[in-house]
Write a structure and sequence with these properties.
Helices cover 9% and strands 47% of the residues. It is mainly beta. It has a five-stranded mixed β-barrel with strand order 1-3-4-6-5. Strands 7-8 form a two-stranded antiparallel sheet. The relative contact order is 0.18. Keywords: DNA-binding.
Length: 162
């Protein structure tokens, strides 16, 4: 009988930097994200302590493209994935290791929006699967035109169906 094993990571934290989107030579999207998680506790003497862990998070394919479009430094997110450790030989001849979380799911936990007066517009190229010769998808920033803004409407709480 084969024994089972489990490699699962669940994290809630804040992004430490903007995502970096790249493409492999075969055209697969890969996005790297820095994520910080905090732990708080009180010592026996009553002193409050805090510890921060920094994680390297990697998303692939469509999830990578979505992460690069939706995430910015400071956002709070939930990620679910698995640990992967890579070993390589550095230029100085020493062996190096890095451990990262390869995510399969990501949920936004806050409602941060682009700065006032700007909106992110996703181009058609960012939705299409790029070829290895294409550059990464572009997200253009466009100033909102004052005349095209709709006036805000007052919402009556009694009109909300839930």
């Amino acid at each position: 009988m084969a024994s089972r094993s489990l490699n699962k990571v669940l994290l809630i934290g804040n992004l430490t930097r903007d995502p970096e989107l790249r493409y492999t030579p075969t055209g697969a999207a890969v996005c790297t994200i820095g994520l910080a998680t905090n732990r708080y506790w009180t010592t026996e003497s009553g002193e409050k302590k805090e510890e921060t862990e920094f994680h390297r998070v990697v998303a692939w394919n469509k999830l990578a493209e979505l992460c690069s479009q939706l995430l910015i430094k400071g956002r709070k997110i939930y990620v679910e994935g698995r640990l992967r450790t890579t070993t390589w030989q550095a230029q100085d001849g020493n062996q190096r290791n890095t451990t990262e979380i390869v995510i399969e799911d990501m949920i936004l936990l806050d409602s941060k929006r682009p700065p006032v007066g700007e909106e992110a517009i996703v181009t058609a190229q960012s939705v299409a699967q790029p070829t290895p010769t294409q550059s990464q998808p572009s997200v253009e920033k466009k100033k909102k035109d004052e005349t095209s803004q709709k006036p805000s409407e007052d919402v009556n709480p009694d009109d909300i169906p839930f």
